[in-house]
């Protein structure tokens, strides 16, 4: 879906910050160093909405507060937030495009001179920059900027090689009609280039970028109307499991003679992660009510989630989210290691590599050295994974600035360097025991 991401002035990330997302990205670091903010900012790409005016819905899902709460504290309220990204080439080839860079610019809703913005909580989309490179090598730049004047509709001035005038924007998607002036006279259809951009922007949604928080619920009884949305806290896991159970999923299993169902892939990974003695099912209790049962395959007893270890309830939403995903999707996961035994934390990496090899992307925030070490071991086993994996380490400088490092891994699984506070506490404590 996305191969690189940039953010500017979002929360603790001051100035321009650039991140490569090759496949499996591990985000580690000290507390309060911007790790969760990176995952939140990627997910916010899906939260651009329009209610009279285009804005960033920072409270619909993430409850981040007001514009001043998400703007970097060192910046005046006149500054902007920016989120930029570039698409994976494999996705672009379907549209006859070589590269597409998108920069979304959001401003303080109270900074306009003439526009009357009724909601002062959400950042307003003030501009967009598109840089499109065609397969023949030609590059086209298209810029949009909000018009701060009283008009019957909020419009953006658009300037491009073949697109010049004014247009409306829905979320982050320019509408296909371009007007000669702000009074919406003399309509024309947008260029083929902008039309391709519009189609690609439609893919930036919660169907293709999914997020699960660190604090996952342990009661999955409630259902809802969406087919495959497990909820940011995993609250609809039981329903999604139940509805997907017999459906074909887009994964490749060893020795599979035909495309596998969700249930087959799910059981396969339950055995690897939890052992041969577990059988997990979701049953329908009533309309929009579901229950997960865990069976001991030896005694044949069924147990509810509150009768087994808490770690299972924390693992199930992640497992369900990953195994109901589609190719080209991006999955953002906070702290998958919560309440998991070290062995299970390590085996979780094997699941992530399986997902990676089936053409999904994952970004994981973690404090688990077991996840890091298992990843190093898997790279030593299969050095070809190197080009699809990166480790980012976040920390703070002596002046409290956020600094991040891309830690290189050799084909032998060795780290290029070991920054201060990068999973070094165990080593320090062992040295203390030796002394």
Count of strand segments: 23
Strand line-up across the major sheet? 2-1-6-7-8-9-10-11
Radius of gyration based on Cα positions: 24 Å
The coarse silhouette is: globular
- Stretches where pLDDT falls below 50 for ≥5 residues? none
Outline the biggest β-sheet. 8 strands, antiparallel
What is the terminal separation in angstroms? 50 Å
Folded structure, characterized:
There is one protein chain. With 435 residues, this protein is α+β, with helices and mostly antiparallel strands. The chain has 2 domains: 1-208 and 327-435, 3-Layer(aba) Sandwich (Rossmann fold); 220-325, no CATH class. Helix content is 23%, strand content 30%. The chain has 10 helices and 23 strands. The strands form 6 sheets. The protein has an 8-stranded antiparallel beta sheet with strand order 2-1-6-7-8-9-10-11. A 6-stranded mixed beta sheet has the order 16-20-21-3-22-23, sandwiched between helices. It has a 3-stranded antiparallel beta sheet with strand order 17-18-19. Helix 6 (262-274) packs antiparallel against helix 8 and helix 8 (342-357) packs across helix 9 (369-381). The longest helix is centred in the last third of the chain and has 16 residues, at 342-357.
